[in-house]
Amino acid sequence: MPSLEEEISSRRTFAIISHPDAGKTTLTEKLLLYTGTIQSAGSVKGKASAKHAVSDWMDIEKARGISVTSSVLQFTYEGHCVNILDTPGHQDFSEDTYRTLMAADSAVMVIDGAKGVEAQTVKLFKVCALRGIPIFTFVNKLDHETRDPFDLMEEIENVLGIGTYPMNWPIGNGRTFRGVFDRASRHVLAFEGDGRANATKRVAEVEAELGDAALDELIGEENHRTLMDDIELLDGADHEFDLEAVRTGKLTPVFFGSALTNFGVEPFLRDFLRLSPAPGPHTDSLTGDPVEATDPDFSGFVFKIQANMDKNHRDRIAFLRICSGKFVRGMDAFHVQGDRKIKLATGTAMMADDRATVDEACAGDIVGLFDPGIFSIGDTLCKVGRRVQFAGIPTFAPEHFARIEQVDTLKRKQFVKGMEELAQEGAIQIFREYGAGMERVIVGVVGTLQFEVLEQRLKSEYHVEVYRSPLPYNLIRWIDEKDGEVDMRSLNLTRETLRVEDMRGGKLLLFTSPWNLNWAEEHNDGLHLSEFGNVTF
């Protein structure tokens, strides 16, 4: 039986990030295909079947072909236990991605070979860079017309400020795509498509050495000459491969391939598992000391909460990243923020909305815990008798606001419950006008698509239809009452300023412009306003 250290060293926990439509979800599915986790992959955009991405479970995800929540997927492959955190690709859900990256030990950055480094890629890369986590790059869609690979490498280095090292090199692109040259083995992996746009079977890879006359027939004489020139240039002028630089986030290994046609996915997976780090230490914010993954004492933090993943049971799942030790089903643990002992009666492993009971899990794993309403994002759980607290997960200031009220006033109970439970997931913030009730609420979001998700989920999960009225506010500030209670009604404010309170009674102001905010500060002696959230995109 493997030791705790051996189990942890076999773990790989990573997030996949990209700009929308770069192929992130497709790559995730093909990784699952190669590991035998699923038998066939249905592309999100495939028209030949009615399948949807296995990592997408909401109705809106299946209908639109986008990921709007972070899915947790686990599989084993060649002695490794792999946890994939499939993050939302849509920019309106950046904060969910940010929180998920807090639970990852490395990241895979998917780049569209035709479009290069895009805006959302830059934002998410910066989050990874702040944490110093290793980044592996997969340049996707080589079966389509793409930009020159040298230009793509230069753009990654100039825009993202990270060194690049191509692990393989493409031979042609689009209709002329013939495969890739693997720089480690010095072999060509030849591309053989099956004639379908959405291949669901493994693509054969034929090996042949560079300079072999047989390559002229396999990839064409011109492609062969170009390849030899490119490789000579790379070998002479490229960065040396430095694993330490990769592990510290200063150098990104770059792989070229096509997730849609399955080409290059398995070689990428093998190299990734070989080069990526096992779970490392997390800092105890109470002492500043590192908590090693191999520490036998259990600890972990909640980075995501999701309601109603099982529509039949109206459940609520808290996703826990285990930072040290081992989780055992039925164990007692100390809930630091709640300052009490709790029993972890059950744990679940996820495959989108499918789940299985977990008896044991160790550092690096993600476990879903049934949440009766006691957990919040950022909470720490640890061994009873030992107090460890990990740094809180960032909060985000909403940038768009709307008034939400139920169509059927007889469904007030369902409306209130739905709004409160969905707000606890962290994707929306709910407020009420000062002194008003919950008949209608004000919802704040980072991205406007979250309004549509809210409406769809209220309808499908709580059977409540709502009216939505956009509001002009785009700035929010807390009222700091450290010097005494503030009388909200007596404040001297412009007509474009709205007094609101959160569900805990906290007092806030909504503004339509910085001018209105400055007015409030200049015309109310002793009024102190503070930022809402600590991360902006």
UniProtKB/TrEMBL annotation:
Any Pfam family the entry gives: RF3_C
Compartmental location: Cytoplasm
Protein name: Peptide chain release factor 3
UniProt keyword terms in alphabetical order: Cytoplasm, GTP-binding, Nucleotide-binding, Protein biosynthesis
Chief location of this protein within or outside the cell: cytoplasm
Keyword GTP-binding part of the UniProt annotation: yes
Record family assignment: Belongs to the TRAFAC class translation factor GTPase superfamily. Classic translation factor GTPase family. PrfC subfamily.
Function text: Increases the formation of ribosomal termination complexes and stimulates activities of RF-1 and RF-2. It binds guanine nucleotides and has strong preference for UGA stop codons. It may interact directly with the ribosome. The stimulation of RF-1 and RF-2 is significantly reduced by GTP and GDP, but not by GMP.
Domain Tr-type G: 9-282
Coiled coil: none
Binding-site positions, GTP: 18-25, 86-90, 140-143
